[in-house]
Amino acid sequence: MTEVLPYLQNLGAIAFFLLGVATVAAWMRHRDHSLLFLGLAIVLLSLVSLVGRLTVVAKINPPLLPEISLIAFMASGYALLLYRNSLIPLRRAWLVAALLAIAAGTVVYEAAQALSAPKGLLGLTGIVLVLVWSATVLEPIIRFWLAARGLPAVQAWRLRTLSLGFAGLVAILLFAVAAGTLAANPLAQVLIQLVVLAIIPLLYVSFSPPAWLRREWRASEEEGLRAFMQDLLIIDGDPEVIARRALDWAMRIVGGAAAASFDATGHLQASSGLTTDYVAALRTRLADLPDGVRRANADRLAHGSLGRRGQDRRPFRTVHSGFRRRRDQPGAAVSERGRGSA
Questions:
Q1: How confident is the model over 23-58, as pLDDT tens digits?
Q2: Parallel, antiparallel, or unpaired: how do β-strands 268-272 and 320-324 relate?
Q3: Which residue from 69, 127, 303, 322 has the fewest beta carbons nearer than 10 Å?
C-alpha cells in the first residue's frame, strides 16, 4: 500500500489539474456568469491539490504558500455558494454571514499557527475551519439535490453529479477529522485517493457532460417524446395545446429552462419562462437563421437568474439558442434559454 500511495496522489493531483484546465476552457467558450463561480470553485481546488503535491515531490516549502493554499481552499467553498446564489438566490445576509465565518475561521487558524499555539488549541481551530468549509458547501449540495427532483433529466443529473462530487470532498474531510490517526493509515490513504479519483469525473460531467452521457440521461424522456409524436399522428387536437406540449418536450429533451416557439411567419405559438420583451427581442433574431442552421447564439438578450417566474428557478447557465425545423413542420423555430452544454 505504501508503494502505491505516492502514485495515486500524483495521479489525483494531475487529474485535478486537468479538471481545472477543462473548467477554464468551458468558461472561455461560454463566458457565462454563473459558470464562472462553479469554475472558480473547481479551479481553486485544483490549484490546492496541485501545489500541495508539487511541494512534496519537489521538497520545497516557499514562504506563505501554506497560507495561500488555505485561503484558496476556503475560497472554493464560498465560490460554490456564489454559484448556488446565481442559480437559486440567497438572501444577502446569508452570503455575508458565510463570508464572515470563512474569514474569521481562517484568521483564527492562521493566528494560532503564527503564535505557536498549543497542539490541542491548534487542532480545535483546524476542526472549526473544516466545519465552516463543510457547512458552506453542504448547503448548496442539499439545495441542488432537492432542486433536481423537479427538473428535466439532463439538468437533474448535472446537479446530482455536482452534489455527489462535492459531497465526496466533504466526506473525506470529515472522515479525516473524525478518524484522527486512523486517517494516516496507508490503507485509509489509498481508499481516500481512490475516492478522490472517483470524484473528479463527477465534477467534470456536472458542467460539461459528453454527448453520449446526455443521451443516456434523457433516454427515459425520449420515450415520452416518441409517445407524443405518435399522438400527433392520430389525434387532431387544439393547435395551441399541441404547441405548448411540443415546447415543453423540446425544453425537457435539451435541458432548457425556458423557451419560445414560432411558426414559419414569425408568429409566436407558445412560450414558457420568458418575458414579453425577451420574446420580442428573440423574434427579431429569427431572420438571422438561414436554412440548415440549427443554433444561433443570442447571449446578450437577457441576463440574471434562470428559471420560470416565481420560485421555480431552473439551475442552468444563460445560453440562448435557436433551432430551425423544416418549414412544413409545426413550430418553425424554437429558442431556449438556460440550455445545458451543447
A1: 888 888 877 777 788 888 888 988 888 888 888 877
A2: unpaired
A3: 303
Q: How far apart are CA 24 and CA 41, in angstroms?
A: 11
Q: Are 166 and 217 in contact (CB under 8 A)?
A: no
Is the separation of the CB atoms in 295 and 195 below 8 Å? Answer: no
**Beta pairing, strands 333-337 & 320-324:** antiparallel
CA trace torsion 126, 101, 48, 32 (10° rounding): 160
- Please report which residue ranges of the chain form alpha helices under DSSP H: 4-30, 33-58, 65-87, 92-114, 119-147, 153-179, 186-207, 211-217, 219-234, 239-254, 276-283
CA 106 – CA 109 distance, rounded (Å)? 5
Cβ 88 vs Cβ 147: under 8 Å: yes
Compute how many other C-beta atoms are within 10 angstroms of the C-beta atom of residue 333: 22
Per-residue burial over 198-230, b = 16 or more CB atoms within 10 Å of its CB, e = otherwise: ebbebbbbbbbbeeeebeebbeebeeeeeeeee
Is 131 within 8 Å of 98 (Cβ atoms)? no
pTM score = 0.70
| CA distances (Å), origin 164, targets 142, 193, 201, 203, 326 | 10, 16, 11, 8, 41
pLDDT, tens digit, 9 for 90 and up, residues 74-120: 999 999 999 989 888 889 999 999 999 999 999 999 998 888 888 88
- Say if residues 23 and 207 touch (Cβ distance below 8 Å): yes
Structural domain boundaries in the chain: 4-216, 219-337
Distance CA 104, CA 124 (A): 14
Q: Which three cell numbers stand for residue 204?
A: 467534470
- For residue 225, which amino acid is it? L
* All cell numbers assigned to 267: 408568429
